[in-house]
Amino acid sequence: MEITDKIVEWIKILKTKPKMVIATSNIDYLILRIYIEGYIDGVSLIVNRNIGKDITFWFQEKIDQRSSNYWTAHIAFYYQGKTEDELKAILLDTTEMFFLENPDWYKE
Fold first, then answer.
1. Once rounded to an integer, what is the mean pLDDT over residues 25-47?
2. What stretches of 1-108 adopt beta strand conformation (E)?
3. Rounded distance, CA 61 to CA 22, Å?
4. Which of 78, 37, 65, 95 is nearest to 105 (CA)?
5. pLDDT band at residue 67 using 50, 70 and 90 as cut-offs
6. Cβ(43)–Cβ(11) below 8 Å
7. Predicted local distance difference test score (pLDDT) of residue 108
8. Nearest 5°: phi and psi at 2?
9. Percent of the chain topping pLDDT 70
10. Are 59 and 74 in contact (CB under 8 A)?
11. Coil, strand, or helix at residue 58?
12. DSSP character at residue 72
């Protein structure tokens, strides 16, 4: 679970001090989404598991809605009408929630 704790800590830093992690003047939803997708893909390579796919299925169960969209794209669709700041908060909260609810996500 140590890796889960580190990921959750990383998410908390993104929530409170995003410019420490993403070096751009304007961090909009798309930039944050691309960053998180890349981070999740990198972690997936390390643990040899498609975490993005796991999060996608988990998110679909959470909202009780099926889609062919990747979970980060589905957030923008499902929560359409929300502001950029609200979408960013939802994205970060959803990412954190997955890891908190699935502390052994990296195990087969």
1. 95
2. none
3. 30
4. 95
5. confident
6. no
7. 72
8. -55, -40
9. 99
10. yes
11. helix
12. H
